[in-house]
Amino acid sequence: MKKIAIIGAGSMAEAFISGILENGFIDKKNIWITNNSNQERLATLETRYGIRTTYNLNELFDQTDIVMLAMKPKDVATAIQSIREHLTEEMLVVSVLAGVSMDTIETLARIPLAIVRSMPNTSAAVGKSATAVAVNHRVTDSQLETTKTLFGTVGMASVVEEEQLDAVTGLSGSGPAYIYYLIEAMEKSAVEVGLEKDMASELIVQTLLGAAEMVKNSSKSSTQLRKDVTSPGGTTEAGIRVLEEHGVQEAFISCIKAATAQSKKMGTELSSKLQTADQPS
Asked: Is the pTM of this model over 0.85?
């Protein structure tokens, strides 16, 4: 691989830059990035990581293998319009834009493209993203392997069909917020039962890490793991009983279904708006 060009310089773009360099995916001199107009942000990334920044599109796309679309989804039409004369069929276009379909990207580009559409989450910032990727029929086997390696630099990646990405968004895309919400409740309860906040936070974080590691490494289901620590008449059973009385499990199911439906709605509306905006006047 010769070069990756990143369009957009927000937190997700920075997470990928950090992961790429930490894992040796490509040399820093071959990572190029641009944005709409925030020169200060580009200067910060250049200083922090030693990557290349430019507003010269000829320079940006010269010998580029991968183009990463990392701007705000609402800006994708303007962004692709500005770069499409530099895109070629040999490039792999990787999108981290929520709600923007591969068909929409190809329509805006006006040429056939090998496209990867992804749904990472904010844990990419610490190299722990749970990412799903979908690819179109123009992506080669070699490009697919490159894609898996790329997303492996910020966590783990699973290949799914594009129509499953709304469900992924509802589950793991928004998932960190659900866990933070749970942590908030545990922190509040810890204070109410007499624990110091700092100590409680450490206990909560380690409890979550330990439970996640158990689910990851055990051959037992999450249901069985829960039952294993729920002794009849014990403290865990008392706590679980209250959760069941309040319908917590059903609330989580409804939560993920609602987020999935909202992702589908937003994606449909955005794609329609983008394709309409690109029509000749």
From this structure: yes
Where does residue 57 rank: exposed (0-12), middle (13-18), buried (19+ CB within 10 A)? Answer: middle
| Domains in the chain: ranges and CATH | 4-161 (3.40.50.720), 173-259 (1.10.3730.10)
Q: 229 falls in which pLDDT band (50, 70, 90)?
A: very high
Residues 233-250 pLDDT 10s: 999 999 999 999 999 999
Terminal Cα distance for the chain, rounded: 39
Place of tokens 């937190």: 11
Q: What is the mean pLDDT of the chain?
A: 94
Identify the helix (H) or strand (E) that includes residue 141: helix 141-152
Indicate the burial class of 112 (C-beta count within 10 angstroms; 0-12, 13-18, 19 or more).
exposed
The residues that bridge with 129 in the sheet, in sequence order, are 155
User: How far is residue 134's CA from residue 117's CA, in Å, rounded to a whole number?
Assistant: 5
